[in-house]
Amino acid sequence: MYSKILLPALLLLALNSCGGKAEKEVKVDKYKVDKIDKIIGIARIEPAAKISPLGAESAGKIAKIHVMEGVFVKKGTLLLTLDQSLDVAQMQQSEAKLLTRQQRIKSLEAKIEAIELKVSIADIERGRDRNLAAAQAGTQKAAFDSESAYKNLKAELNIAKADLAEAKATLGEVETERNYSQKLLDKKNIYAPADGMVLSWDSKLGQAVSVGTKLGDFAPAGDLIATTEVDELFAMKVKKGQRVQINIQGTKEKLSSGTVVYCAPFLSKKSIFNDRADNLEDRRVREVRVRIDQPEAVLIGSRVECVISL
Fold it and tell me: Are 132 and 138 spatial neighbours (Cβ–Cβ below 8 Å)?
């Protein structure tokens, strides 16, 4: 009985011993951080002044796009116009009111000038009639009538001056209204915030937009930078002034070179590429920015590899 049990066991042992060769042990050298002379990080190309979103300050329908994507423009260049028909009508109404008020002011000024001339003549006549009455060469009634005519003209002059003051005050109100209409009209125009380039338009001709709607992206002129993140394990090894090689992502093909110009003074959570499916490790990183020597060799918004020489 013991031989029956022992025989299968011996056979199994023999099969295991003959079934394959022993695996060779692989020696793994101890990982030494201080021996690393390069750090590779995935980076995003963007303007040094950051990409600016173009937004609408007023609601309306896009009437005209003046500048196409990829065209370099100067600060203040008209980029896009919303429909201005209602604002133009309000502006014309304000201009008409302003013209009416200006004409009334001119009319009152002419009226005041004529009354002042009458007052000066009436003043002479009342003085003459008063002297004649005192010398008994004229009647008291004539002197009284002259005095009344003078006082009536003075009252009429004061009323005309009050009307002029009121007209000037209403002119100021209309000018304020006109300026407000002008500002509303200007808000229908989107201007370049700086020298630079429109990267993309998110809206199309004829589209209705609301206040705050993003219309497109604008890249200010200036240096291009590659923004990357360095793992906290190597964060203290990266410093300003270090040279960097910019490669096509996933290859060793060089696009440009660059220099580290900024190292964040703190560690933060991954933010640049946190949409990656393989980003499961909860580690902190240090943001690093690299100024690119040949901006024409890269595209804004593209991903590249930054090889930082330590």
Answer: yes
